[in-house]
Each structure stands twice: as C-alpha cells, then as structure tokens.
Amino acid sequence: MMNKLFNSRSAYEDSSTLGYELLPFNFDKINNKYILTNIVGDSLFLDFDNLNQLIQHQLSPSSSIYNSLKAKFFIFDNTNKDGALNLLSLRYRTKNYQKSFFTSLHMFVVSLRCDHSCPYCQVSRQNIKTNKFDMSKEIADKGIDFVFKSPNPLIKIEFQGGESMLNFNLIKYITQEVKSKNELYNKNIQFVIATNLSFLDDEILDFCKLNNIFISTSLDGPKELHNKNRPNPGNNSYQNTKKAIKKAQDRLGIDKVSAIMTTTEDSLREPIEIINEYIDSNFNSIFLRPLSPYGFAIKTKTYDKYKTKEWLDFYKKGLNYILDLNKNGIFFTEFYASIILTKILTPYDFGYVDLQSPTGAGISAIVFNYDGNVYSSDEARMLAEMGDDTFNIGNLLKDDYKKIMTHPTLLSSIEDSITVSSPMCNECAFIEYCGSDPTYHHATQKDFTGFKPLSGFCEKNMEIAKYLFQLMENEENKKILYNWLNI
Amino acid sequence: MIITINLDLFNLDIVKNVIYRNSGKYSFNLDIANKIVTLNIKLLDGSVIVDKDEVEREISRDLIDQSLRQSVREETKDIRKLIIAQAFSNTDLLDDE
Amino acid sequence: MKDALKLSSKINVREGLNKRKYILRVTKNINLPTVLAKESLFLDENSTTCDLDKFCLSGTVEKTSNQNLQTRDIYIPEQMSYIEEGDIVRVDLQNKTLKSLYRINSLHNSFLVTERCNSHCIMCSQPPKKANDDFLADDIIKMIPLINRDVKFLGITGGEATLLNEKFLQILSLIANYLPETQLDVLTNGRNFKNLDLAKAVAMSSNSNLQLCIPLYSDVSSIHNFVVQADNAWNETIKGILNLKRLNQKVEIRVVIHKQTYKRLPQLCEFISKNLGFVDHVALMGLEMMGFTKPNIDELWIDPKDYSQELIEACKILETFRIPTSIYNHQLCLLDESLWSYARKSISDWKNIYMPECKNCSVKNQCGGFFASATFKYSEFIKPFS
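^ inputs. structure came back:
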C-alpha cells in the first residue's frame, strides 16, 4: 500500500470511458502465430485470440500485453496519445529521410567490350579489339554534369560494362573531372569499379590507391561453378579472379575490395561451397542474390514462382551455414539479411535502392549507357539489351536533366509501384521491410505494380522476413543477427 | 469445389480481397445472388481440388483475417493521415502551446 | 564510518557588526588586492596582526584555547573547518549562520535552485516544498561570478529548476558567460520544455556545455506517471526531450532503478534506443535512501542483485545501439563484471561512505561506495573482493 500522500498505480491508468484506440498496423501469419507490425516497422507477436480481442477493443488494461502494445505503438489511450503521435511521426520521418536526398548512385557504362562470355549476361558483349562500343568523352562530360545536378551530398559513381577496365582511360578521366568539379560542390564522393579483374595491372592499382577507389568483382563459387557461369575463352577465369582479388586486397586493403555472385540454376546446389569460396578469399560478407528473371523469356507465370521456391531453399541453407560459422567464432554476414534486419530492428534505413518504396529506380540510382542512353536501373538496361526499351528515359546528348527526370515512364513506374497504395502490399505485415520493383514486375508480368500472388519478388521478400523472425526466436541466433546491424 | 459466403457476414470487399490473395494458387468463379456469394474454386491448372477441408479452412481463415484488417484500416485511417502529415511538415500539428 | 560533511552551522559573530547577509569567496591570501578582497572572507589561520579592513569579513576557526581573536568578525565551528581557499560561503550575520555553497576541491558541486516542483516522485530525494524560495536562486546568482574559472563540472538541481523561469535563464546565462568552459548538468523533469519557447530561451542563454538530465522511468506512460505522481507527465517529458533536441541541446536520460521500474528496464532501453536514440547519454541509477524513499520503502526496495539480469540486458541493448551509458550508485560487488566498465564513481568523495563489509575489499578504490543515507538500508550481498 502506498503511503497516503501518494496515489496508487491505478490512479494513473487511463480513466476515459473510450478505453484504448488503435494505431495503424498490419498483420500476417507466421506458423501458428500472428506477427503485427506498425507504421514504422516495430513488431510484436500475438496469438489469434489476443489479436481478435485487440481489434474488437476487448483487451483489458490489466492484460499482460496491454502495456507492450502501448509502448510499441500499436494502441494508445489518454496517457500516451501525445507522446506516441510525436514519436511515430518522428520515426516515420527518419525512415524516409534519406529518400529526400535523391539520386546517389550513378552508373557509367564505360564500355561494352568484354573478354568473358557469361551466359547470363544480357549485355551484347563486344569484341575487345574495337572501341566502337566505348563511352565517349562527350557523353561522359554530360554524365558528369548530370551527377552534380543531384542534391544528394553523398554521391557514388560506379563504373560498369562489359568489362569496364577495357576503357580505363575514361575511368581515369571521369574520376579526375569529378574530383576537380567537386572542389566547388564539396560532396562526399565514392568511386567503385565493377570489373572481372582480367585486366588488372599495377597502373590501375596505383590509380585506385591514389584516388581511394573501391573494387567490386564477380566470384560465383568454386572453380567448376565459377568457370561454368563465367567462361573466359582460353583462360581459367576462376584462377585469375582469385589471384587478382588477392592482389587487389594486398594493394588496396581488404575493405576496398568486394565481390558479388550471380546465382544460376547450378549455383542452387552449392550454397555452402560458394560461401566457403568467399571465406577463402578473405571476404567477411556475401550477398546471396536471387535468380535473375531478366535472362529468361518468361513463358508461364508459374515458372517465376517455382524457381523462387528452389532459390529460397538455397538461401536458407546458405544463411544457416553462415549462422553456424558465426557460432564458431567466424564473423561473416549475409548482405540482404543485414539490410532487412536493419529495417526490422532499428529506426534507420540505409537506402538500399532495390528495397525501398518509392522505388529507387531513377530517384536513388541511375545508369548512363555507353551511347548516352539513360536508364532507371541496371536491370532496365538489361531489358533494353533484350529488346524492351520501356525504361529508357532519355539520352544525355539530347535531353536535359529535367526532361530525363520527369520522363513519363519514370514517373508512372514510381507512382504505380508505391507499396502503400498497392493491393496486398498496403496490408502486408512486411511492408516496412520490403520495397517496390517496377522493373522486375514489368519484365515478368508487364505491369509496374505487379500481381503479388504470382510475384517471385514478393514471395522472396516475405519468406526471408518470416524466416528471419523465426530465426530470432532463438537467443543465440538473435545475438548473432544483432551483430550484423549497420548502426 | 464450391464455397458460399453470406455477404451479411463478410462484405464484398473482403471477399474480393481474399480472392485476390489466393489467385496465385487457385482460380475463382464468382456469382452473387440474394446476398450470397458462390465461389467455384479450382486449381490453377484447371484440375479439381482434392483436399476440400483444407481449402475451406484456408478460405475461412482468410475471410476472418481480412475482416479484421478492414476494421483496423477503417478505424486508423484518420490517425494514419495525422502521423504522416506531421512527419512531413516542418511544424507540429499537435502543438497546442 | 564517516559522517556526511556538515554544510551549514551556527556561528559566533563579533559584537557590533551589521545584520546583513553576504555571499563571499574564501581566501587565505593576506595580500589579495582590495577589489577582490571586498568580496572575500579572509580565513585567518595564523593569528595575523595585519589590518583586515579591506576584506568584507574576516573569520577564524574557533579553538577552545587561545582566543585573542576578538578582532575577527566570525568564528567558525570545528565541524566546518574543512573550508578552504576558493570555497564560496553564505554568511548570515542576523541569523548567525554559515553555509558552504561551493567547494573548490569537490568534483561535483551541485546548486539547489528551488525546492518547488511540479512532480511528486515516489522516491524523491529532495521532497518538494511549496513556499517561495527565490532566495536560493538569488544566492546562486550572486555566487557564480565568484567561482574559479577553471572549474570543470557544475550541476543545477531542485525541485524543478525550470519553475524559476527568468531566474533560471539568468543562472544559465551567468554560468555560460563567467564559466565558459565548465560542463553544466541541469536536472529537470523536462515537462516544461513541452513549451518550445522555453527550449529556445534555454538554447539562447547557454553554450554547448549545457546538458539537460531528464528522468524517464518507463516505456509505458502510466507507469512513468505513477512513479512521478503526475498525470500527462510522460507525454510532456517526451515532448520536452524532442523540443530540446530540435534545438540541438544535449540531453541525458536518467533512470532510477527500483521495484517499480526494474521489470521493464530492458524494454525501456529498447524504447530509448529506437525512439530517442539521439540522446547523448543514458544514466542508470541506484535508489537513494533519502526523502520520500523511506516512507515508500516497501514499494521501492529491491536488492540490486535481484535485478542483475534486467540490468545486463538493458546495457546490452544500449550498447548495440551505441548509446553512451553509465551506471551510478551501484557497488561493484552487486554488478556483474561485464557491467563494471559502465560503473562510475559518482558520489562526491566527501559524501561517500563504505560499510563494515567493505573492510579489506581489494577494489574499494575503484568502487564508488555508498551515500551516507544508505545506512538506512542496503543490499545483503555486499561483500569484499580479495
């Protein structure tokens, strides 16, 4: 009993006859429980009876979950309305803040020439001896002007191809021009070269070292797999790539060199071997990428989803293996999981362009092809190579910044794919961990919005989110996954 | 298989939503008469459904879930607008000082 | 066992002096220039025969023998003989009292600006009073220009300092102007900062060394409101924190851990990490056995050993979100070793004591010890390390 000068606990509970009111939230089933997520992605598990009571306003303030529902912003009453609304709106603003900075990633396709003949590559690779398919200085200059039109204080310039190092002179030129122009703008500019490393030499390494340039290369797995995926006629791509990675790491530092894998049907059998290959090359992270739909003429809609199920098995096997590595003291992360975990567990969003709504296409990342054509994403460029020019939003030689950035296709693809106004997405419990992909849905369904029940993109993201929640029921896993957060 | 739904229990929006969500697995033929919706459900390849109990359980559950979702959406649509408006404004809409 | 220092005392005063009150800096320097001497109390230790008229007042520690000291203005009792050069005292010649306001060699000088408060916390160590006590703030205002410029830390406490309005702003302003390098912690419940104008006024009156220390006792509004015994307090405090941060002020969140707050301590820290992650510091504090804590002891007391798990989990969460954290007023034997790096020796060395169990403890010097008031009740798990 409190001393009579003090009021008891019940005196401070909500006293209005209204009881509690609901704050916006979505829910979905995971196994035999329901996961609830609020407008900023905070989550809570309930069983069906509690969920039902909650929504019917039958939950009593003395029930064990009432306080947690209040504190986590699923309900409010007189005692917390003001605080809850202030904090929710601040959190919502924080989550979306990055998007207002606009385009950060600018990809320059400096050449279509390439020495490899990867079957999954959609780019019409050109003979390495001709330079008809190199980007010109004139186009590069226009691209550079475009870069500095972006209001974003953080800019990333990525050199792509074909094999980008075959036009290394242009890479040098663009780097130097950008740096020089940046003395006026004073932005934080990062450079990345996406390359197969076949043509890596000391001159290139020196330049990278001097200008703090990052290297991103392709490593698809162990020798057989990598060479099957990425044949380089007359050469052992696997061997050369591994050697070149080491050389680049030695010279530039391991934090300056990264690798990505392209997943093919053959990859699906070997998640663990692929991961081991990455450990062998001193990487502490891998991005287990999904199968790309762009390389296939999608014959039936079910094909997309069937493949997704197989891929999910591959992903889960890989993720479980990585968790085991961590349990044995090896710090190793899966990139996609860490992005989604950051959205689930923290108030921050690190702006991964493929997982945001509105879509990152154009407004977060943009591609300048060797011929000056501008695309809203790298996937959009691949579609064009396959004959579908839908996402060609202009040409640097003919169109100015405004014309390109207000191209009707760009605008409608952004608008039509926003998740909060898309069917199923707007009620999905995982909406705050997901994003839009109008390019994918156009490629597979000829529709920017996409019919989500048949979308491999949707199934993948929902399954991964559900799987991560299930993994986190285990304390040891939870601890490891918390270490993967980018805070 | 055939399922009938009383529109007094679950309104048409709810039914349509459930159909939408399940159209990746089944095909639906919809008929409405006297406040009763009749759904003719088949597998996507046109074949007949074998485990009818399971499908009925699934659809029933989805109808209930969707009905709850509709309640939440209705009840929270104003407060959602308020939160988002404050998130993107430079002043406090709630500031009563 | 040491007694806490006596901060004020009756004094003997020479016949014939006026009946005024003075705020004075203490000096032992006979050669002090007049312009400084006239705001000083000369503390005579050597029975000097010099003329002391340039000093505002002169004084000496009263000894039982050798009283050729009829010429000193005030006679200081033995228990206040700790007073030294650079200290600041309040001398009341009418009521014949001497009060130590500022101690130059203390690491944590704290100024009580008012005992009035708009909350009524169940564990308040400074129970609120209603009467007008502006004289407290007036004394502080007079004192600030006398404080040594190189003082590192100062604190403002109460009651609720913001209730003073203008005088509060004036104090902030004086400290920013006279002591521009001093770190200033202001304890406040934050509720009045729901008014953005007050936050603006504070921002304008202070420099970047100001930190507002604001208690938040629960992620659940009704529990916080119960602890502070005020309706709507949670909403107001949150608004206050947000307003202060809009104006780039430094904010620390304080949590006193007791029976009403320990259970949801991890949830509170997760709440802070996700919603208030921009705060500059979180201070997790042990219960002080003073003021209202005693009458409410049954609702408040929990042995710190019994909330070990919650405290460890709370610190882990704050660490994951990289929020600077400290633990105050917890003895090292009660803390899991993983938490020792958060423990601070926060009790001023003239306020802290050790218990009989602490004799021969090998980490005694590292440990902050106890407040003197802890003799009322303390953990049964106190034991020395060998």
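The two ends of chain C are 21 Å apart (CA to CA). The domain at 8-101 of chain C is CATH 3.50.30 (Glucose Oxidase; domain 1).
thumbs up if we can close this ticket
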